[in-house]
């Protein structure tokens, strides 16, 4: 049986992710108490369910037991993958204000901002156990698409995710490594190149004519190649490498596509995301 645990910060899109999994044929359980995870998995496996998704969050009692249950289920051979959703504090405040929902941790006299920070600290251990998605700049449709890409990925070994972004929209919270390519010539300032992206041939030709761009690409590729085995030995399931330029349309997109192409050729499991293009 394949088990996907959906967790993360309140307001970050867990319900959207769970519905995307349900649409993909998963048997879904929402707001499962953490201490009941093992029993529910055993019951659903005995009932013949092959793909199951459960949502566990701060509404659950005994949330602190979830990491140990995750390790125990993996040790028993369960094909388990944890999906952790998060957003910036500013985005979460805006979402709660727009929907007028109460935050689950607001019962203890905290402000909304204090509740969000308390939840982030409470769940930091879980964030390190799985694949993180920063939903701050994502539409619901994009999140659904990224969740479906995630479950379609071959999960044997370490998954390498390359993500492009624009610094003017903020650095992705889910990045393990961040590389800045803003020092390179910007195709945005060429009126002919501006409408294209880094995956289009005119922009590719422009950047590959720049010696500095090719040298930086080689350096980043060499850095990831050098340190990737260290993360494999550390039993990491996913590693996110974020490449940023000013707007996230040209240079960062080109770098992500070239890096993904290289590591796929090395038989590495690779996932690509272009945040601003999405």
From TrEMBL:
<dbReference type="GO" id="GO:0005525">
    <property type="term" value="F:GTP binding"/>
</dbReference>
<keyword id="KW-0342">GTP-binding</keyword>
<dbReference type="InterPro" id="IPR005337">
    <property type="entry name" value="RapZ-like"/>
</dbReference>
<protein>
    <submittedName>
        <fullName>RNase adapter protein RapZ</fullName>
    </submittedName>
</protein>
<keyword id="KW-0547">Nucleotide-binding</keyword>
<feature type="domain" description="RapZ-like N-terminal">
    <location>
        <begin position="1"/>
        <end position="152"/>
    </location>
</feature>
<feature type="binding site">
    <location>
        <begin position="57"/>
        <end position="60"/>
    </location>
    <ligand>
        <name>GTP</name>
    </ligand>
</feature>
<dbReference type="Pfam" id="PF22740">
    <property type="entry name" value="PapZ_C"/>
</dbReference>
<feature type="domain" description="RapZ C-terminal">
    <location>
        <begin position="160"/>
        <end position="277"/>
    </location>
</feature>
<feature type="binding site">
    <location>
        <begin position="8"/>
        <end position="15"/>
    </location>
    <ligand>
        <name>ATP</name>
    </ligand>
</feature>
<dbReference type="Pfam" id="PF03668">
    <property type="entry name" value="RapZ-like_N"/>
</dbReference>
<keyword id="KW-0067">ATP-binding</keyword>
<dbReference type="GO" id="GO:0005524">
    <property type="term" value="F:ATP binding"/>
</dbReference>
<dbReference type="InterPro" id="IPR027417">
    <property type="entry name" value="P-loop_NTPase"/>
</dbReference>
<dbReference type="InterPro" id="IPR053931">
    <property type="entry name" value="RapZ_C"/>
</dbReference>
<dbReference type="InterPro" id="IPR053930">
    <property type="entry name" value="RapZ-like_N"/>
</dbReference>
């Amino acid at each position: 049986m394949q088990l996907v645990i959906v967790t993360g910060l309140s307001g970050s899109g867990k319900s959207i992710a769970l519905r995307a999994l349900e649409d993909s044929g998963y048997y879904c359980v929402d707001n499962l108490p953490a201490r009941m995870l093992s029993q529910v998995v055993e019951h659903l496996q005995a009932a013949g369910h092959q793909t199951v998704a459960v949502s566990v969050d701060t509404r659950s009692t005994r949330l602190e037991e979830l990491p140990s249950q995750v390790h125990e289920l993996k040790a028993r051979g369960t094909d388990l993958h944890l999906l952790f959703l998060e957003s910036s504090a500013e985005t979460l405040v805006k979402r709660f204000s727009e929907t007028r929902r109460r935050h689950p941790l607001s019962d203890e006299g905290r402000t909304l901002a204090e509740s969000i920070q308390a939840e982030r600290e409470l769940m930091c251990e879980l964030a390190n156990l799985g694949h993180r998605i920063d939903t701050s700049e994502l539409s619901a449709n994009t999140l659904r698409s990224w969740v479906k890409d995630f479950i379609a990925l071959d999960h044997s070994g370490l998954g390498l995710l390359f993500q492009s972004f624009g610094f003017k929209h903020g650095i992705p919270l889910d990045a393990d490594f961040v590389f800045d390519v803003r020092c390179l010539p910007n195709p945005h300032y060429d009126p002919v190149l501006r409408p294209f992206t880094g995956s289009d041939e005119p922009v590719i030709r422009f950047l590959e004519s720049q010696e500095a761009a090719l040298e930086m690409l080689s350096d980043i590729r060499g850095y990831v190649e050098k340190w990737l085995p260290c993360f494999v030995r550390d039993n990491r399931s996913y590693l996110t490498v974020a490449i940023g330029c000013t707007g996230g349309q040209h240079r960062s997109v080109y770098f992500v596509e070239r890096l993904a192409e290289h590591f796929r050729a090395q038989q590495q499991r690779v996932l690509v995301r272009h945040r601003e293009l999405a």
